[in-house]
């Protein structure tokens, strides 16, 4: 049993649902869910030192269709609750989850790029490349990170 099965999580989901359900009908349409998801990403991006790109509109709509179990075109609270569990992260759908996305972005930023930059500088120094002595790790890591993100965006 994880945090997602606790009454606290249910309460949090209820609060999020009520915020999206502007006209208080007890159900939200796909468009309202998309706006809600974007709001969650915005507030997380404002809080954490990493920027995660929100899912595309078409991906969010696919997700709505997937979790609209009775297929009535709207998301009721129980359906929303299941969807929230995936957004927060479950073992089964871990790579779809926000936690995973933040983890991978942070790993890239904090671990992989600085390590790659450090190795690159070590290599350049070992072959006595010009300027290698004065190459700083952090800016090089940022450049690598930008390069990786640029390539990732292209293959999207
Ligand atoms: Ca439904």
UniProtKB/TrEMBL annotation:
The keyword Zinc-finger does not apply. The keyword Repressor does not apply. GO terms for molecular function: calcium ion binding. The chain crosses the membrane at residues 99-121. It holds the Pfam family EF-hand_7. Keywords: Calcium, Membrane, Transmembrane, Transmembrane helix. InterPro entries: EF-hand-dom_pair, EF_Hand_1_Ca_BS, EF_hand_dom. Residues 8-43, 55-90 form the EF-hand domain. PROSITE patterns: EF_HAND_1, EF_HAND_2. It comes from the Eukaryota. This is EF-hand domain-containing protein.
């Amino acid at each position: 049993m994880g945090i997602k099965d606790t009454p606290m999580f249910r309460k949090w989901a209820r609060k999020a649902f009520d915020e999206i359900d502007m006209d208080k009908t007890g159900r939200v349409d796909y468009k309202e869910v998309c706006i809600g998801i974007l709001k969650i990403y915005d507030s997380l991006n404002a809080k954490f030192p990493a920027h995660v790109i929100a899912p595309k509109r078409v991906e969010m709509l696919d997700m709505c269709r997937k979790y609209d179990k009775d297929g009535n075109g709207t998301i009721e609270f129980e359906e929303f609750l299941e969807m929230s569990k995936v957004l927060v992260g479950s073992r089964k759908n871990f790579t779809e989850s926000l936690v995973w996305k933040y983890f991978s972005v942070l790993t890239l930023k904090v671990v992989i790029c600085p390590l790659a930059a450090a190795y690159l500088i070590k290599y350049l120094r070992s072959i006595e490349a010009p300027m290698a002595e004065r190459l700083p790790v952090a800016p090089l890591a940022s450049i690598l990170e930008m390069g990786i993100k640029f390539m990732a965006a292209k293959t999207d």
